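Each record in this resource describes a single protein on a pair of labelled lines. The shape at a given residue is found from the number at the same position. The record below illustrates this layout:

***
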Amino acid sequence: MTNHQSIFLAKSAVKAHDLEHKRKLSFNIEKYNQAVEKGLQQFSDLELARRRAKNVKWKAIEHLDRYLEEFERNFTARGGKVIWAESKEDALDAVLQICKAKKTKQVVKSKSMVTEELHLNDFLASHQIESIETDLGEYIQQLDGEPPYHIVTPAMHKSKEDVAKLFHEKLGVPPNLTPSQLTQVARKNLREKYISAEVGITGGNFLIADIGGVAVSENEGNGRLSTAFPKTHIAIVGIEKMLPSIHDLHLFWPLLATYGTGQKVTVYNTIFTGGRQAGETDGPEEMYVILLDNGRTNLIKTPEIRESLYCIRCGSCLNACPVYKNIGGHSYGTTYSGPIGSVISPHLNEMSDFKHLSYASSLCGKCSEVCPVKINIHGMLLENRHLATKANLNSFSENISWKLWKRAMMNRSMMNIVGGSLKAAVVNKLFQKSWGEHRGKLAFAEKSFNQLWKENNKKRQ
């Protein structure tokens, strides 16, 4: 068992039986589910919209090399600078070099999962550069010293009382403030940072090839403020976020908004195509786009898993997943949690370290059912298990156990030899920790249904 797996099991065991944690998570997810159900009514033919979106992403990923070059060509034509980062280290080094050239001591950052993937805040802090999260959820998590809990809602596991207590402890404000008052406290603190920061950093929801643009969606306006005041804007975007044309946004913006938060469209949708042009009154003087690979080409090279790159990070599969709803986002130990995170994390990192995530699923298929771009998520979780087995990553004892299990399950006479009491003793011993600690012991009938059927037929004859 790897260290990552043992940590995952330990955290999951705690969270799965933490009733207060489950109450908060269920409450927040149910609010989203209700909103999404309403938001979906804006589509006259939802299945057609989803199929078209999937086709667009198929086209973008199958011809990604061509679209990336087209993006670079169009973006640089307006004075922007493109940096290709094959690894995490390449991306971090690029950010550091820009910050050093600008003599930066402070950056403001809008919500971005790709910067969490890079652990950018910790990296900049190690070089005496303060990085401030400006999204309210991310700001809360940064104050608490925690990573995001959810792809869309970083502080989903916290109640308003938790946040009030945190602000009281970290910022010295009165306890028991209302959500509106807490928001005003955050706004007051952050407004000063926008003005004083030399560099603004964002992610990107979509790369648009035909205009050389980076599309950013957000609900608080912090993304625009992070790019309007600082003289330099750095957008760090995964290469899979590509869309062929600006004309695809009329489909993807509503899908992202509705499946993410239940809105018809996100409040602030901005397209950045470079630094400030002649005659423009605001915006950064310079803009850099860092195109990040960091393992994404591993997914492209694996045809069975390539479809996972269609993901638009709406978070709907997390909200639908019975496993995520029981163990929460931090148990996974990865940047991307939930079903889609379990698919891509073993390929973005090491399969040997994170193969266990693909087993943290009931394969119920709900994740695939709610995906706006119809990714076969549960099918790819099963494929990951196959790839891990093919790569001989399972332990000797695990392989032997499954071979014996398979042989017994495919041989009715062998199953009938062992009585119910012996079966119960063996199973309860084997699963004493994973099952027995929080549940009653398993009991098996002394005779199987097969045996009873045969006996009943003999009596009739």
Remarks:
- Residues 19-39 form the longest helix (21 residues).
- The chain has three domains: 43-294, 308-390, 407-460.
- The longest strand covers residues 232-238.
